[in-house]
Amino acid sequence: MKSEDCVIEPAAAASGGAVADASFGEGAVPGRLGAAAWAPVAALTLGIATLVGSEFLPASVLPAMASDVGVSEGTAGLAVATTAVAGAVTAPTIALLLPRTDRRTVLIGLLATAVVSNVVVAVAPDFAVLLVGRLLLGVAIAGFWSFALGAGTHAAPGRDHVVSTSLALGVSAATIIGVPLSSVLGDAVGWRPVFWAAAGLSGLALLAVTATLPPVPAHPGAGLGMLRQALANRRLIAGVGCIALVAFGNFAAYPYIRLAIERVTDGGTVWLLLGWGVGGLAGNLAAGALARRLGLAVVVAPALLAASLLMLATVPGLPAATAAIVLWGFGFNMVPVATQLWVTRAEPKRVESALSLQVTAFQVAITAGSAVGGAVVDGGGVRAALLVGAVAAVLGSAGFGALRGSRP
Fold first, then answer.
1. Among 86, 25, 117, 147, which Cα is nearest to 362's?
2. Reduced to 3 states, what is the DSSP secondary structure of residue 389?
3. Which pTM was predicted?
4. Among 18, 89, 269, 315, which is least packed, fewest CB within 10 Å?
5. Which of 232, 236, 230 minimizes the C-alpha distance to 407?
6. Nearest in space to 309 (alpha carbons), one of 356, 376, 408
7. How does pLDDT run across 78-94, given as a tens digit for each residue?
């Protein structure tokens, strides 16, 4: 059995306060956890759901938003890319800028930033101001993702795979409920009220985290030294590159999912978006179930993503499109859980830095994927963007396949 196929159960927190990386050490025996331990995890999951829902709101209201601010639909897709630019900068640097700050304080501040971001977008008079709001959201998302798993395992030690799956379920909730609902709401009352609603939900998550999450002291070694040591791990960096390829493949196409759906149906958009979300929920659960076979999960998930994008681009008809979109949700939503756990196995001593690199890979890929996808959509249509995404996902799957034979 390959090393990445084995679960290394997180250790109990070190004396003097739990630290994010300490919760991933070897030898812990998970005990029975009460409701008090899971309440913070639920609050963090709500935070992830509101942040991710906010990140991808432009995909739900893209045509109306583009028309209102006077840009093309391909250009409007940069509202997602801009968020990712800020995230790509924030993920590897936030721990360097705040090496000793209690992670609870940081998480609360990031949710407050998300509230401000959505308000700015909701009142934006033009595309430039809208992009400023989206930059703020990128800071909030990347920082929250980088610290949420460590904070969750501090509250529920010995259950990193359960916490990771819970956080990913927040992503599924955002896609199952948020994306279709925001599409309906946007069509009914306009795209701006959708962002006002996102601001309200972000405020609710802020209150929940404030009320339930205990202090989470930073790792005593957090900072530039930890990041340098993580960057020296060649296997980790190769895996991060594969993550970037897979995420690029998804986000070359995802901001334009509504356009892809409208190629095959005029009246089933909401139901197909819901199908993507339901597939995503199943994918999250499947990745959690494969926590002991991460080497397999990180190969299979991108392969399924590639197959779904290829099918959606080439096989005509509503039944085929429906199957492809559900499979798309399933395959891609395996990726965050599987890769989050994969990097913690590849670099168990410097988990905070490893997770920040995973988040950076996603954010860079979202930036590049959305930008390339927008250019491809404007030049060759959404079908071409789906094919670009399929090729990148295949390359990511092959890369992880090659890493299965290596050792940390």
1. 86
2. helix
3. 0.73
4. 315
5. 236
6. 376
7. 777 788 788 888 877 88
